[in-house]
Known about the structure:
Shape: elongated
Oligomer: single chain
Structural class: mainly alpha
Distance between the termini: 10 Å
Amino acid sequence: MRITRFPSLTEPQFFGCVAAFVDSLAGELNSATISLRRLEGRPKGTAFAYEMTLDTHRYGALIVLDRWSTLVHAFVPHLRLSRRQTILEDGPRRIATAEDILGRTNNAIDSSAAYSAELVEACVMAFQSLNTTFAEERAEVEQSAKLGPLLPEDYRDARRIFLEDLAAR
């Protein structure tokens, strides 16, 4: 990841990365939810295109978590924030929790013979739990978004670079 090659990261750059992470994770989880809803009630293997889309997004969420983990672990020891320091300090724990939730969800999907209503609802609830795990990060993004065009250039550049890093998967 190019962003981790920065010799140091400023606070606006870090928060730009937070925005890219939160938006990307939410996008993957929302897309996975839509795919699951389309598959609801069908046996496995009967809607290949939807199943491939589901796989793309549920594993895409794992990739987003992996990239976020790489960034957090690279900068936790060095970066001090004027606000929301717990995003960094609690980051490894939150990432581990999210990986556990997503791993269990993926195991449930993989081991099921069909996309029953119960399975779909359990997965949707798990995806919502994942979003809740990163509530502080989301709150930061929402607060920063209020600045709109007044966001620092460093914020926008770092957000773009992190998104490019994610797209290079």
